[in-house]
Amino acid sequence: MSNSPKFVIDGLKASVENKEILKGINLEINGGEVHAIMGPNGTGKSTLASAIMGHPKYEVTEGKAILNGDDLLEMEVDERARAGVFLAMQYPSEITGVTNADFLRSAMNAKREEGDEISLIKFIRKMEGKMGELEINPEFMHRYLNEGFSGGEKKRNEILQMAMLDPSIVILDEIDSGLDIDALKIVADGVNNMRNEERGFLIITHYQRLLNYITPDFVHVMMQGKIVKSGGPELAERLENEGYDWIKEELGIEDETVGQEEEDFKMPMNTVAPEFK
Amino acid sequence: MTTQIVLPIDQNEVRENSQSKNEPEWLSNLRLEALTLAGQLEYPKLEKTNLNRWSIESYGKYKSTAPITSIADLPEAYQEALQDQKDNLLIQRNSNVVFKSLSDDLAKKGVIFTDLETAAKEHPELVQPYFMQAVKKEENKLTAIHTALWSGGVFLYVPKNVEVEIPLQVLFLSEDDSSIFSPHVLIVADTNSSVTYVDHVTSEGSSNELVHNSIVEVFVKSGAKVQFSTLHNLNDSITDLSYRRAVVENDGRIEWIIGEMNDGNCMSDTSTVLKGNGSTSDAKIVCIGLNEQKLNITTNATHFGKNSDSDMITRAVMNDNATAIINGVTKIEHGAKNANGEQTEKVLMLSPTARGDANPMLLIDEDEVTAGHAASVGQVDQNQIYYLMSRGISKETAERLIIYGFLAPVVSEIPIKQVSDQLQALIEGKLER
Ligand SMILES: Nc1ncnc2c1ncn2[C@@H]1O[C@H](COP(=O)(O)OP(=O)(O)O)[C@@H](O)[C@H]1O
Ligand SMILES: [Mg+2]
Predict the structure, then answer these.
(1) SUF system FeS cluster assembly SufBD N-terminal domain spans which residues (chain B) (predicted)?
(2) Which residue of B379, B387, B431 is the best one to mutate when testing the A interface, meaning the one whose CB has the most A CBs within 10 A?
(3) What pLDDT digit, counting tens, does each position of B148-183 carry?
(4) Which of A193, A225, A252, B355 has its CA 20 to 30 Å from the CA of residue B242?
């Protein structure tokens, strides 16, 4: 299938502020597949999402991320997006003075050739339609981007953007946090409606709840900046019932987080007088 | 008398100019008194800005430019903006007014809209009691110099109960760097009248240093409403020194809309004296600084009246090595019970070498009041850029969206469409050089 994406993450390592957080991630996502990454807080899930998208704070030190044969890591953030990657962020930014509609239209036109911009009327119709499906108040079209939105409103707005931009690889980072059960169902419907052979999903969550509504094909558990266990939907169910402790026991992990351990004290070789400010 | 006047204009010249224009004696005398003061007074002391280091001495000479009969005689660039404004339009080129028109309808209602030189002769009873009364010649060297050598200018009088629906429009155009370009605008809105005044202060092709030392005075009588809007885009060899001041009586209202889009240094001081009970004011100021530009922008609201209300917003975008000192002063005098004053100053810096300073000041001598201020100075947020880029938007477009978004809360609130469009175009011109 020519339109079915193939996304390969191979040995990806990444650091923040010189702390290594991702310690070698391997993952392959194909069109039509839904992968879930689960794991307690602080295990590196958002870092993986940010490294794939290209957040400037996250430095990839090793490994590859190849989408349909193209090296994402060589691209700027906007090029990655135009190549088909979409990240619904855990903490979307608020931007004063830029309306939701203006922003989305700029984003849609960024993917199109100059001279082939979407007409205003077509755009409005499409946006109104998608907002209706996601039960977003039509007023939000002309509200400033995420400004003053509640947590749940921001999440729905992320899904709206996904629906409008029609990406081929979708990463949802904690899209379920801050959503009540009704909103969760709406968001899950939004995702399920977009499941097809031309799109692959990576759903990051630390609750199993969302996966009751979006059934994953593959489930991966992340700890200490690595995928420590993979399986099918039954793995998510077991995590729901038993929590993460059995995995930690099985693998001999005491602290599943990454990047938070005290730095080992090393005797400095060249001592320099401390600076007092 | 051995006054050390650094002006390129002397007492004789001031006298001769005044005589050759047949100015009334009170005005001639005022000019000469002011000239003496100019030799004695100091330049104003501005917050964190030393005016003495700016080029503020080149005023040029009074030179008369020939009148024109229609806007078709203007350089093409200026015709378009004035297309729809055949009436109620006044044009000053360099030192003098070259075109003026007022609709019969407004003239019949008693509206006066003419150059200030003519008004001083024909309507002294309306001009003399107000001219240089909101701003005083004794304030500092700049106001004294202005009083001595202003030329051209505008006088707008709206009689009692007259509501002027269409904006009155003025173009101030400097095309010759050796001509005085220091107009004075005097607006008197009588009881329960209302009017919208729009001007554009701009320049064409000059390259030597020149000072634009202008003063605007607005008198808003009881129950009257004045919308005053001005856009400045003078070139980088012109130093813009502008005072604007309104005195607002009971239940009167002034709205200021100001776009400081110059390429040169600019001191801009916009003040409102809320004299009457229930008087209100609103000021929106947008500025952009590039290259080595220095801006010192002040908004001031002084409350005397009970239940008076003021709101002031300034937004500045600074790039390159430009510096902006943004001052907001809300002063509530003793007795101004239930007054309310709000102000916000925000500076967005686009380069690490741009400088911005926001200085909000609340000076309150009365207990029963409410007042608030907010100020911020910051760089473009990299997380916002990342967020926009993650949707496929290029870095340049992302920055543009954020910058325009920063200005939007002011620009989108401008009630006169023509002004907000023109301001938007000037903003784009400056940011997308
Ligand atoms: N922006 C950041 N600045 C500093 N440290 C960070 C940043 N992002 C992540 N980290 C580090 O990476 C660790 C993992 O964070 P994160 O990827 O957000 O985990 P998760 O999404 O699994 O909760 C954090 O504990 C922290 O030490
Ligand atoms: Mg996270």
Answers:
(1) 47-170
(2) B387
(3) 999 999 999 999 999 999 999 999 999 999 999 999
(4) B355
**Amino acid occupying residue B79:** Q
For residue A21, the ligand 1 atom closest to its alpha carbon is 12
- Strands in B340-349's sheet, in edge-to-edge order, are B96-101, B89-93, B168-174, B194-203, B225-233, B253-260, B280-289, B309-318, B340-349, B370-379
Which residue's alpha carbon is at the smallest distance from atom 25 of ligand 1? A42
Residue with CA closest to ligand 1 atom 4: A16
Domain boundaries, chain A: 6-94+164-271
Q: Does pTM surpass 0.90?
A: no
Helix B417-431 vs helix B395-411: angle between axes, to the nearest 10 degrees?
150
Answer yes or no: is B5 within a domain.
no
Q: Does residue B47 form part of some domain? A: yes
Tell me: the pLDDT tens digits for A195-223?
999 999 999 998 888 999 999 999 999 99
Q: Is residue B192 part of a domain?
A: yes
Q: Which fold has domain A6-94+164-271?
A: Rossmann fold (3.40.50)
Interface confidence (ipTM) of the complex: 0.93
d(CA A149, CA A19): 33
Partner-chain contact B406 A111, CB within 8 Å = no
CA distance A262 to B229: 60
Q: Which atom of ligand 1 is nearest to the CA of A39?
A: 22
Confidence of residue A74 (pLDDT cuts 50, 70, 90): very high
Residue B293 lies in a domain: yes
Please tell me the total count of domains within chain B. 1
Q: Across the beta sheet with A226-231, what order do the strands follow?
A: A85-88, A169-173, A200-205, A34-38, A218-223, A226-231
| Structural domain harbouring B99 | 11-431
Q: Which residue out of A57, A96, A157, A159 would a mutagenesis test of the B interface target, given it has the greatest number of B Cβ atoms within 10 Å?
A: A96
- Which candidate from B386, B407, B409 shows the least CB-CB separation from A55? B386
